[in-house]
Amino acid sequence: MSAGETIAAAAQPRTLAPFGRRPARVAAVDEHGAYRVVWASDPHGPRDPRPGQFYMLATVVNWGGGEDERPYLPRAFSHCRVVAEPEGDTRPRLGFMLDAVGPGTERLAALEPGEDLWIVGPLGLGFRTPAHGRALLVGGGIGTAPILALADELGRSSAVLLGFRSAAHAAVSSLFAAEPQLSTDDGSAGRHALVTDLLRVELDRDPVATVFACGPPPMLEAVRALCAARGVDAQLALESGMACGYGACFGCAVPTKSGFVRLCLDGPVLDASELDTALFEGAGH
Amino acid sequence: MTAPASSPSPAAAPPSRDPGEGTGLPPSAGPIDLCGVELAGPILNASGTFDAIAARRAFGDALLERFPFHAFVSKTVTLEPRAGNPPPRLWEAPAGLLNSIGLPNKGIEGFLRHDLPLLAELPAPLVVSVMGFDRGELERLVGAVGGRPEVALIELNFSCPNVETGLEMGAEPAEAARAVASVRPLTDTPLLVKLSPSASDPPAVAAAAAEEGADGIVLINTLRGSALDPRTRRPWLGGGGGGLSGAAVRAVALAQVAGVSARVDLPLIGMGGVASGAHAADLLAAGARAVGVGTESFRDPGAGNRIGGELAGLAARRIARPSGHPVESLKLG
Question: Could you say which architecture CATH assigns to the domain B36-320?
Fold first, then answer.
């Protein structure tokens, strides 16, 4: 690699993945209301994945053979937190937040300590920091995962706004070091509002900010439209069905102002200004 | 009873008899000759299932140090740039994958300028896959890549169920013959023909291509399939239908490789659902010279390394224990 390429790489929010899949043992599984966090020891992986990067996960045993002989392909997840292994070991342990919504997430959410995962990663481009002005972190539902990793990095200098369906899902907000602002669809925790309502109040208060967001496509589209109207920079962590996670399959194409991009390679974090909409066909799958 | 001296005795095996025959184990996972090109082993990627340039961005130069293929096949290049199909492009099928990607690529000019120099850095011979929507396009494509020193072989993609062409060169023997005949005089670079598994008689298409000077045959491509959105019962894939790959098509690949092998005497590159060294050994036993790894690379970027290693392990066992071994790659249960 030439010196020029090294400098270019350092400016990119990408930590390189070791080549190939590797085993990672489940060290612990925590329940947080409706979600589970699976902690996987990754002794051969980098200690510094960027918040917003992701890993492809599959279980070593019983991946497939479920309903319709699925799952078959690995599933993409952003890590929600990186901790060091206990007892002075500096090797990384990765947290993955799970909501069982299909055959892949059902199998992963059923993982028990001692089971093994195949993992590939970290992949893609994460959030780009520092923020211009205040950092406003906006998470919706299971999309809270990379927002937690980013909050860990930014510390108390950021404001965290989270939206959930209900109090059971909002339980995961206890993982944040600083108390986030909460909203729920049913009003069972925090404000009975959309998380974009919380964001609007924050932008009214101080519009010099950068928004970092991850959540369901309608939420991301609302964040995009709001930030576009206010002229606020926003980075959106999107989701699109992926088979491989490293640019091989061309399956996760997302329409941007400059044509299709492979979300796994040029995302999953995209500048909101690159998008006409975050509600494209296939978004969130 | 003593056999007459004039007739060969079946009991006295000729000295060239393969001692590993009947073991079900592959003779070698080592170097092969593929249409005059020396490969360090028999494992390739299926076109469109591994983007070495993208993989280098994700994995860095570790990709080159442990490059998973003995030859690298480019994504199919067309004359003009293509954006590809609208999303969604993927559907997880039972033990397989349905895709509707639509051949996104930079077009031949962009490929030669941007991609070819990077692909030439790979530690394996390069196969460039091309697809023309008529014979004129195909001729211009072959003319552009043929004879380039970076290009060891050319793959003519005669089938892609994702693109609405109305004309599939791999579907009919006469159509395939005309296409090969039109490009054969343009280059000395070996030409591989990638068959369509949807042809009614793939061996006949292979024979027609061989007759007009094809140097090798690649099979199988994806099988046509479709999936419906469970909420609307409308087609899920943005391109309408798609191509099925993965474990679900492995048995089809084995049958088609065996069928074409019985009909034509050209090197075959067999592929379709290969996920292990045993699967590769099956295709070699069915008559393939080399084996392509496709969808399994999505599940494991280093699948080519693993499958090549497993194949070498099987070959080593054949040498170590050369008789009476069960045919384990084909056993049931």
Answer: Alpha-Beta Barrel (3.20)
